[in-house]
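Office hours follow-up: a student asked to see two folded examples consecutively, so here they are.
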Amino acid sequence: MLPLILPALLSLSLTAQPLNPYPNAMVASINYTDLSFEQAIAHSQELLLEIAANNLSDQEMTTAIANLVATENGARGFFVTFLTAQNFPLADQPTPALLTALSSSPAIVGELLVKNLAMATATAILHQRAGHGEAAQGSQQVAQRTQTLINELSLPGLPEKLTELEQSLDGPGPYEAFLQRWNYDQEQREAIRQAIAQVE
């Protein structure tokens, strides 16, 4: 399985012209159920360009994002694009339309936010060790954006997931296999603990 957050995979600058002159058709014509992870990334890039160009109403944006995050592939593709996007204020200051869309799939979104917070935080440590300052800042930005979404959404079950992640840092727990899979060391685990503590 591909990582939930792929460090330095995307640095989407949303200053280009929108790709689709007919945004309503774009929203309506996608078969979201069958999207692969890679297709979800490509669609999310186009969608963010449309949002940045103010080509979608709040309702159209909510519908498009809600459809994406209704499946795991769609949600992963959306978040890997959205959380790493540059020149995109919505990622730092979520609007009610965005929050409504993400709240439509609390189980999928909540699980991804918890894991994204851990992965981005731990990846920032790796980049810092390697002397890759810009990449470290990018991962820190992803972690901060994820914290903001967690705080703003107040999804059911999310506080419990964060508690389970914290418990798994020191021993058996629901996220033990996840943490072992990425081979996080003590410094990374402590950074994840601090990131959890900063969630309001």
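And the second, which I mentioned at the end of office hours:
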Amino acid sequence: MDDLKRLVDEMNQAYEDASFRFQVEMERMVQPLLPPKQENIVLLLIRVPSVTVSDLAARLGITKSAVSQTLDKMERGGWVKKRVNPANRREVRVSLGPKGEAFAERLRRFDQMMIETYYTRLDREDIKTVTRVFRQLHEWMSREQQERNRRNE
């Protein structure tokens, strides 16, 4: 177990070091940055252009009330748009607003710069391995969170 602890410590340190540098580059190119919860919503809406408030809450692992409060603030700032689904008036769909779209474009340019400057230096198999590991961790952590939520209901 000591060897596993050492490996995890090394992995965490490498992740933190890379995350710090990643954040520095991102701050340089993708201004303004948002608070983490709001940034997560924008990032999700970039991947899934229109979702319900319930979907957002489930994907982010927070309550619908917390999502609604955050969305209200983001809508006032022009980051997101909310609209009632005409087929189901109780359902509110969320998409990117003008500031969210502009942020998404800056993020696309940032991603392209990262690919051209850094990721091209990595072996593609290493990229596939890191992706597989993070997907696996995400899956296990999501299952664990769902189990905790079931136990707390």
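Two things to take away from it. The chain has a mean pLDDT of 90. The beta strands are 51-52, 80-85, 88-96.
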